[in-house]
Protein 1
Amino acid sequence: MTGYILRRALVSLPTLLGITLIAFAILNLLPSDPLLTWSDGAGPVSAEATSRLRDALRPDSGPVMRYATWLFNLLRFDFGHSLRDGRPVTAVLTEALPWTLILNLSALIAIYALGLPLGWIGARRRSGTAAAGRALLLFLSVVPPFAAALLMQRLFAVRLGLLPLQGTGAGGAPGPAAAADLLRHMVLPCTCLALAGWAYAARYARAAFRAILAPEAMAAARARGLHGFSLARHFAPNSALPFVWMVAGIVPALVSGSVVIEAIFSWPGLGQVLLRGVEGRDYPLVMALVLLAAITVLAGQLVADLILPAIDPRLRDLVARDENVHG
Amino acid sequence: MDRRRDGAPAGARAGIAILTACAALALLAPLLVNDRPIVARDPTGRIIFPALRAGRGVASGSGDVALLWPPIRRSWRDVDLAATLQPPSARHPCGTDLLGRDLMARMLHGARISLAIGFGATLLALGLGIVLGGAAGLRGAGTDLLLSRVIEALSCFPPFILAMALQAVGGGGIGAMVLAIAIGRTAAAARFARSETIRWRGTGIWVAAHAAGASRPGAALRHLLPLVSGPLAVQAAFGVTHAILLESSLSFLGLGVPAPLPSWGAILAEGRGSLDVAWWPVVFPCLGLALTLAGLSWAGDRISPPIVARRLLR
Amino acid sequence: MACSGGGRARAGIPRRLLAAATRAAVALAVAALVAATTTGCSPARDEPPGRSTGGRGGRFVFPLAIEPATLNFVSGTDQASVLVERLVADSLVDHDADLRVVPRLAASWEIAADGRTLTFHLRDGVRFHDGVACTSADVLYTWERIMDPASHAVGRVDAFLPVETVEAPDPLTVRVTYREPYAPALRGWEIPILPAHLYRGADFATAAANRAPVGTGPFRFVSWEAGRRIVLAANPDYWAGPPGLDRFEFAIIPSADTAYQALLAGEVDYARIPQAVAATRAEDPEFRRRFSTVRYVPLFFYYIAWRGDGSNPFFADARVRRALGMAIDRQGYVRSVLHGLGEVVTSPFQALLPPAGDAPTAGAPTAGAMPAAGAAAADAPDPETAATLLDAAGWRRASTGGLRRRNGTPFRFTLLVFAGGEDHVQFSQVAQDNLRRLGIEMTIERLDWQTLWSRLKSGDFQAALSGFMPGPDADSLYGLLHSSQIDGGQNYAAFRDPDTDAWFLAARRTLDDRERRALYRRIENRIVAEQPYAFLFAPAVIAGVNARFAGAKASPQGILGHMPGAFALRPAAGGS
């Protein structure tokens, strides 16, 4: 097992390097001016001042050297300093990362929590309410995240005053009150993030359950005397596969929706950091972010590859032969 | 008594009908709603088709004699600052946008752009994914290693950065956006295709087909496509609308189609600031998207269950 | 696969219809919901939802769209940093709501007879928030850091380039000598003063005071929760007395729409009101009970730069530039899209006050001791005259219409626009339509800020739409119009006029206000005749302030960007 993990990690190393190289190339090929990157470059700047400052702000080596330096520092776990304010990149990221994690994980849980049951119901019986529910979700999924966010803000926060409009709460000493405050602030942004995923999850679940609960299999299982909960448990392992794959369809929506949702709800996550970083050509920051995202995705795939064989015995051989089943 | 799925043929027909209607509308939009004639004769007596010359900004000369006008004579690009944000009325069935342009005309012309982006990006992603994943699964060993790394890289890279880069380099445009969105979605399809290929390779069918003399790519394609089309169809249905929504976010960030092209995403993005006083720039594109998604999923319903069932029962 | 289809077919179709009808009903319901939540009325409740924080009476929450990069007074020059620095630190001088210079840390000053030496007399007994006395040594240190390129003082250096020396003969006196008389000298000292004792011996870029600033201002720093808020508390020992508020909070709210909704929901105490709803809101009695409004026109205008250095065949001819300027419908845009919240700008000097000393007429939207001379403040675009001018310049349309050409060259050009600016993008489309009717094809290229900036700086463009923020003194337009600023500066139109150059320099060297005004008037006439830029409009701002607070005063730099600014805010008498 450990050997397998290590081998996978080793094999993924070139991918990670390749990604950072691409990110670096993009950010350095795009036109950029360090004068603008630093402190968002405010105020009218005359030609004289520009020439004075440009020497001070210009990077002191060419692109190849800079990438090599960055790589070398990476080996010492030094991610460099942001070009916008000079702070260590790790500091900037550790401030924002927990917020993004909380939001996206909660949205993922919410998607599964609502999508799976609806899919199950829809597959098991012809229910008018389930169909109506799916239709509603379908419509909700095509509402752009920002529109849904704006509408919900107006309805729940301004009109009804039930939920906070934006932000992460008043902070203060950790404890049940602060946790409750945070949860209240999370409801709206999570819902907006989950919107697109719900319809997809419900539909995917319905299709998958329908196939799994195909009549022949059902008849066979019933003939063996299974029913009710044991019936569900019988089909559970096979059912799990599609839902692991389903994440692959949901996560991109979450990530791309995050940037807009975080802006609207003033959620201090990585979305704003990434946006500012790319606009400002803050390449140490963006590269660290890209690396972080890549490692997360790859780690997720690794975990899936470890879980899948446990569920589906047919895959165990493939894993034993060291084939990368999940890709 | 067994339970059967609902009347799939009827639903699928309805779905396909909706999709065909959308596609027809989109393709025929310049001939249905335009401020230029469909057929005209220019001063030298030549027959010209001004309505189809969509790209050029400056209108054709006043010396042309129009022979055939579109049924609805309306422009999607004429700014009218005296009539901004008008609610839907007889004159403007969908209202006007922030700059006074007729929203219905913009929606129809935008259908072409948005559907092209949505379908283009999704089909490109699916095609690339199947090719990449299939090749990786078929070849095994070295090729698999390399291609798997490529697939990994694709799955990890934030499409937003790519979109920005492509726009800065290519000056924006629909092609760049389709590419950016497609690249972001290729990985999921590729991974699925790859694992399916590997599984299928382990069965006897592959050996039999090969022994019977079928060429590798041919056999792979014939057997692979039905395998992957099921779940991928569901992904595709949502993928198209997701691509259009992604285009809306990119438009919102300024990376969308060049102004003043009225893709649905651009209309949505422009309508954001005035949502408090004008719901129509946001609701109509959403309805369009809902219609597209409904059509796609109804049509897709037909494909997935039998395929998925057949596979899992093997 | 034996039994398929059959059994359910007769129940299939009604189900489909049911699903379809459900979808339609859902769509209608959602549309109704949208209408209900978006059409106008103010919140149904009387009081904002209860927040669990105490001390409401003296706590003011102000939204910031961007988080400051750093709170170092010298290197933090983005708009957010500047706002926070105004509350935490003092500058030698400041300006009031009418943009007149007023004393702050410097109790008085005088200018020597030769006009080259400026002597400040600092207040006695002023202390930093950590108790250390503030003296002229701190002023000297601040100046040294600004001039040191290593401290990256982007945006602050310009005011001090003409300085020859700065001396601190005693702890309460600062003497600044300029190379020659420099009219904008006094205003240049509106910079916050650093606490030298916290930076000496520490690395300037990473000192702790950059994230936890210490100054002499009316509010002292309490905390900075990254990405969320910056909290300040009143400084009871402030030299002008304690401020009216106990606490001042900056909340980081990236979306302007969210900030406005937050105002309605009671989560912030100030926000700009979006143009679309400003008119209706101002009339709504419920809104007026809960909020007071302030209105101001910021010192900012949009313009289109026509690159006139001959790199393109269009814009070297002043007739073409004038024609295009006439054809563009700014008035309609301000009226319809901005709902009247803005002013058409026909001259860059329009909103600027006369140089310090004269009676100001600012605050009101039609400020200007310098009314636009020359070209009429047109009420409407004039496409006919524009067409005539274009014909005279050689750009003619074929008799059948179509594109204008001159010697076979079609009139087609590209306008660069900042992609992230709503007004930028929307107005460019209006201009595109205006020019299309005139027979000119303009393509809009939207770029992100850095790319646009590089294209502008290198002159690699034909036309570009951008904005300019003049300072309170007319000399700030030097960067836009002087020929020395073509290469590397902000003179993007490549405007080169020896007379204008000479007038600018002369206006700098004299301290006589009447003489300066006459010189700027001449520049203005020349600019209006030559039209190197098409000046567009200046958007106005209407903002709401929670009625629980009094003392908010509008200036061209908002309610905080002047003296007394935040200092004067206080809970309203008998506050709810």
Protein 2
Amino acid sequence: MWKRALVGAVVLFLVGAAAYASFYVAPTERTMGLIQRIFYFHAASAWAGMTAFSICFVANLLYVWRRQPRWDSLGVSAAEVGLAFITVVLITGPIWAKPAWGIYWTWDARLTSTFVLWLLYISYLLLRTLIEEPDRRALLSALFGIFAFLDVPIVFGAIRWWRTQHPAPVIMGGPGSGLEPTMRAVFFFSVLALHALMVFLIVERYGLEKLRMELDILRQEAEVA
Amino acid sequence: MKNLDSVFAAYVIGWAVFFVFYLTVARRTSLLREDLERLKQSLKKGQ
């Protein structure tokens, strides 16, 4: 218990320090001004969300291959956590867009593919509530999760392949792109902090899934008795 | 300090989403733990 609390405190410290650095360490961007500081939270949440969906994808593949319940548990845990991060991305993005573009939302390739990604993982979680039988639920949702992940590279590539309202990438964007060194350091620190939060939340959510499995086993024993 | 309210709103709403998510996981965990304990007790009584 104390170990969990300690890890939680470290994660809280990291995300607090990242927020502090976003406001007080990173310099103010020349053209957008103060509003650009949302970038450190918005983009880092997007990276953490994509990592969570990648974990879900690997867990789904492993479930289809090995048929071990723990991969199903990891898959659903990572999907829920990824969904929380992408929800944050879809909320902070429009808050940034309004002062920067004059509109909250536009159906460009990046925004639309991210919204579709959000809908796909909502569907993944809804699908699980519709199937009673555990093995069938795990297999069908793993297959759906593999399909849903196909949108992740589209989200990544959208601002590279097509001309979009969303800004071009500043990281891995090729020649001419990039961030000022302090901004870059603050951004990667935010990515680290939000990844720590993502892992912490997946571990917590996985613990819930383990308890659920334990309860299912006991219920079966009670029925036999 | 133009747009300070928007930056503040983005951070507060964002953290609220994570906090609410964590609370729902903690709540579901504690409810399951209670169910588990109850079932263990009833199984013990049945033996």
